[in-house]
Design brief:
Layout lengths: L1 E6 L7 H12 L5 E5 L14 E13 L11 H5 L5 E4 L2 E4 L9 H5 L7 E13 L4 E7 L6 H14 L6 E5 L6 H7 L4 E6 L3 H16 L4 E8 L5 H8 L4 E6 L2 H8 L9 H19 L2
Parallel strand pairs: 1-8, 1-9, 2-7, 2-8, 9-10, 10-11
Antiparallel strand pairs: 3-6, 4-5, 6-7
The chain binds iron/sulfur cluster (SF4) (2 copies).
């Protein structure tokens, strides 16, 4: 099972469009599982018309206060590094969105008044169609921690490993903990960027993050021809492999905005996906 993560330093670079097109192209030869780990805004499902096979609640553990046995010692407040539990005189308040499920308050409570219980944070769905299968993590509105759901969705995907040849991961945008959690297990990371100063700035941060994680990377320049050549220069100067480019074409954005698949509709995009896929496999084979 090869795992290829598709990431971008910033949102709106065409990461999801590329993940979906890549999955569709690879599905002609392989069994592909596309994992949407952009859990705060998963939208791969917009482009897949299939049957929902599974929909389960994703949970994290949070403490639940049992007032009858509490002696109001304040130890829970003192031991929580995340301000997720506060002892206010004769009451203990818990803030589930802030809780990191570290168990400290629960284990250090002298009267065992904070047992850890399940708290629903979102959903994991498995959707199947004739081309490929989509596994989607989707965080509930108001929930702030994407990482536990990303890890649970990935774990679920791992459990399906024997049924698939390739796992494509659509990562969350940005360069913080959710991205790190999403690419943690990838064998290869494709960084999608655009030829603009913002694209270059965020690409540099993403490259630093991937280097720290010792990930093998390649860059795809989307909307090529729109801005300048600074991204290419940066990649060349830093020995970063450019896997390919996707030409700027207003029709891609127009089709995408309608929730339609652009893959087979625009010839040069189709060819770019084929060329980039070959480059990814060449790079992977040279590992
Ligand atoms: S540590 Fe336990 S006993 Fe102390 S205030 Fe918190 S819940 Fe109550
Ligand atoms: S489990 Fe950890 S993070 Fe959550 S409230 Fe307790 S001490 Fe705080």
């Amino acid at each position: 099972m090869i795992e290829i993560a598709v990431a971008s330093g910033k949102g709106g670079t065409g990461k999801t469009m590329f993940s979906v097109c890549l999955s569709l192209y690879l599905s002609k030869q392989y069994k592909v599982l596309l994992s949407d780990l952009d859990v705060e805004e998963p939208n791969c499902s917009v482009f897949i018309n299939g049957n929902e096979l599974i929909s389960i609640d994703a949970v994290k553990k949070i403490p639940e206060w049992e007032s009858e046995t509490c002696v109001f010692c304040g130890s829970c407040s003192e031991n929580c590094n995340f301000h997720a539990v506060i002892n206010l005189g004769q009451h203990v308040s818990i803030f589930p969105q802030l809780c990191h499920s570290c168990y400290a308050c629960s284990q250090l409570c002298p009267t065992c008044s904070l047992p850890m219980n399940n708290h629903v944070i979102g959903k994991i769905r498995l959707i199947d169609n004739i081309d490929y299968t989509l596994l989607e993590g989707s965080l509930d509105v108001g929930e702030e921690q994407a990482v536990p759901l990303i890890r649970q969705t990935w774990k679920y995907a791992k459990g399906l490993s024997q049924d698939f040849d390739i796992r494509i991961v659509d990562c969350p945008p940005g360069n913080s903990c959710p991205l790190v959690a999403a690419v943690e297990n990838a064998h290869y990371v494709v960084l999608i960027t655009e030829p603009t100063p913002f694209g270059l700035n965020d690409l540099k941060i993403a490259v630093q993050t991937m280097n720290k994680m010792k990930k093998r990377i390649g860059v795809v320049i989307n909307r090529h021809g729109l801005g300048n050549s600074d991204v290419e220069k940066y990649c060349n100067d830093n020995n970063i492999h450019i896997l390919g480019t996707i030409k700027y074409d207003k029709r891609i954005a127009e089709t995408y905005a309608l929730g339609e698949l652009v893959y087979n509709k625009i010839g040069h995009l189709h060819q770019s996906i084929i060329d980039i896929t070959q480059e990814i496999f060449k790079e992977y084979a040279h590992a």
